[in-house]
Amino acid sequence: MSVQFNHTIVHAKDNRESARFLAHILGLEVGPEWGPFVPVATANGVTLDFATAPAESIVLQHYAFLVSEEEFDAAYDRIRAAGIDHYADPHLKQPGEINHNHGGRGVYFMDPAGHGMEIITRAYGSHERPEAGS
């Protein structure tokens, strides 16, 4: 078997709130709670297990999700409908915009715990680079 990423634990101020938030934006389901975890599974089988942690112990992380053009449209509509601050860049300098990096579209936003979330339609490095001198 080749190495595969299976799951990660995402610390949150409220595990249910953060799991519901991400699942809603991405059009995913919140899985059944088990122990201290509230899981959200992606299509490729990777699970984000949200766990409540004291606010002062949460280390902010970045999570990027590769989506189809249609999924991007739906997620972006939900972001705007909910009035969620969003940005074209990870430094949060281009509010209310999306980017067109790597020949696709992308947007950054924060989850309720302050983690940086990103949705993209093209994987980084997947676009064709122009020939030198073109």
From TrEMBL:
PROSITE patterns in the record: VOC (PS51819)
Record keywords, A-Z: Dioxygenase, Oxidoreductase, Plasmid
InterPro entries: Glyas_Bleomycin-R_OHBP_Dase (IPR029068), Glyas_Fos-R_dOase_dom (IPR004360), VOC_core (IPR037523)
SUPFAM superfamilies for the chain: Glyoxalase/Bleomycin resistance protein/Dihydroxybiphenyl dioxygenase (SSF54593)
GO molecular function, one term: dioxygenase activity
Residue intervals of the VOC domain: 4-122
Domain of life where this protein originates: Bacteria
Name of protein: Glyoxalase/bleomycin resistance protein/dioxygenase
UniProt lineage: Bacteria, Bacillati, Actinomycetota, Actinomycetes, Kitasatosporales
